[in-house]
Amino acid sequence: MLDRIVFDLFAGLAILSAILVVTRRNVIHSAIFLITALLATAGIFLQLHAEFLFIVQIILYVGGIMVLFVFVIMLVNLDVALHQMQFRRQWWVGLLLAIALGAETAAAIYIGRLGLPGPETAPPASVLEPNTEMVGHALFSAGGYMLPFEIASVLLLVAMIGAVVMAKRRT
Fold this sequence. Notes:
Order of helices and strands: HHHHHHH
Helix content: over 70%
Distance between the termini: 57 Å
Strand content: under 5%
């Protein structure tokens, strides 16, 4: 019962903050609500005993990507008034897309209630193997993922050094 309440809390928070991401006019507020949606998703991962995905969600998306988004938002000079006038005349396109999305959602709910077979339920947590340990073993053993993992880390290091060099030239 408590698991259902916690899941509903995180799911509701994720949905509410996702709606606020697309409805806010201020870009910084949208980025903060996106961080909230990502944290709520991480909470769902933790509740589902996916500790690795929980940590990756927080470190990679909330910690890395969102900081990058906020820096880009602050560095780029956006003329918001010019862009707002451009899209005000096309409110009917947004309304049409909202109606289409609502129809798709209603159709999915209707088809789902017909009793199509759903996914199997997950086994209890006591039966599950430690997934973080399995991911680490698969990545760092000689099973074929070690070389691509190291290549990706070197590419990310080169990209980070290139970004620092390009930023230094401008100052």
